[in-house]
Amino acid sequence: GYTRIVLALVSLYYMPIHPLTCFTTYAVSCLLDALDGLAARAMGQSTKFGAVLDMVTDRCTTSCLLCFLSSAWPQYALICQMLISLDLASHYMHMYASLDSGSASHKKVDKGRSRILNLYYSNNKVLFTFCAMNELFFLAAYLLAFPAFYQQTWPWVVAAICFPVCAGKNIINVVQLVKAAKVLAEGDLDARRKAASAKANQ
């Protein structure tokens, strides 16, 4: 987890001046996202702090990359801003709703709450594919901001392949936001009913 943060900082430093170094360090940081949880569980070092640090690192790195994209592609700045807002809001509300409802982890989503989120969080292969291709699309868009890569074919191919999955990932973020809002609203209503019942019994 700490290695991810160091690599992310290195990628941010090189982001405006050395695209290949930034791409490599950012990509390795993202790949470690799939390994840190496995390593923690294998060594008996799973902690709440580690889980939160992992999510915060994801949100921060993606937001920083989208900030760069909004300046590199100003015609898409509003889209980048909306994607940052959606990413942060959906994950914060989902995490808060999970804790408020007594769930041991934000990745434990009952099918009754959402089949989409259940599949997304319970299947590591699905989760890795969506997250990896989401970041790959943004990285491809980042490389295309530089003339040397804009004229090459492979960044365009990567962007074209990853775009549908990236779109799907953000649709999942919308679902996550809506479901979390519903859980919190139902919790508020339940708390009010209990308070009213307790007051009536006094």
From TrEMBL:
Principal location: membrane
Group of enzyme by EC: transferase
Membrane topology, from the record: Multi-pass membrane protein
Keyword ATP-binding: no
Listed GO CC annotations: Golgi apparatus; membrane
One Gene Ontology term from the biological process aspect of the record: phosphatidylinositol biosynthetic process
Signal peptide feature range: 1-19
EC number of this enzyme: 2.7.8.11
Entry keywords, A to Z: Lipid biosynthesis, Lipid metabolism, Magnesium, Manganese, Membrane, Metal-binding, Phospholipid biosynthesis, Phospholipid metabolism, Signal, Transferase, Transmembrane, Transmembrane helix
Location of this chain's protein in the cell: Membrane
Highest rank taxon of the organism: Eukaryota
Transmembrane domains' residue ranges: 126-148, 154-172
Sample GO molecular function, one term: CDP-diacylglycerol-inositol 3-phosphatidyltransferase activity
Database matches in Gene3D superfamilies: 1.20.120.1760
Entry keyword annotation includes Glycoprotein: no
Obligatory cofactor(s): Mn(2+); Mg(2+)
Protein family (similarity comment): Belongs to the CDP-alcohol phosphatidyltransferase class-I family.
Protein name as catalogued: CDP-diacylglycerol--inositol 3-phosphatidyltransferase
Organism: Ascobolus immersus RN42
Taxonomic lineage of the native organism: Eukaryota, Fungi, Dikarya, Ascomycota, Pezizomycotina
